[in-house]
Amino acid sequence: MKKETKMVPKIPAEPEAPVVIEQFLCFALYSASLAMTKLYQSRLKPLGLTYPQYLVLLALWERDNVTVSEIGERVQLDSGTLSQLLKRLEQTGIISRRRDVGNDERRVLISLTKQGHQLKIDAAGVPADMISVMDTSCDELTDLTFRVKELRQKLISALP
After folding, report:
1. Average pLDDT, stretch 67-96?
2. Burial 96-106 (b: 16+ CB within 10 A, else e)
């Protein structure tokens, strides 16, 4: 009689901890962010914008006349960095800052000027240009964006 052998499922080995810098997720994210920023800078320079200024403007083009803290939450910038950035945008005539006299004078409201609204039109081709040079399908980019946002939330939840 033939002896039956039981199939024992293989337990996957514990993944090895990264050893060299190229194996670390933190480095992959950091270096990808640097490359993305450099790529954006080449498209934003003709518009007179830095990458962080562009992020703030993206938030304002989506929703105008908001508080400084709302912008900070949206673009993940601390108040010190954001204050300097907003001062520069105001000096160039792209935004205006004013106290919220009607509700709370401590709050500062940020609004786009006519020039800020025009800049949205001038910058309209930037996202499509970025997508085209990345040579990645929109579905892949959407999936990657979703997964990175999920990771960001996990990282924020793990903060002390």
Report:
1. 94
2. eeeeeeeeeee
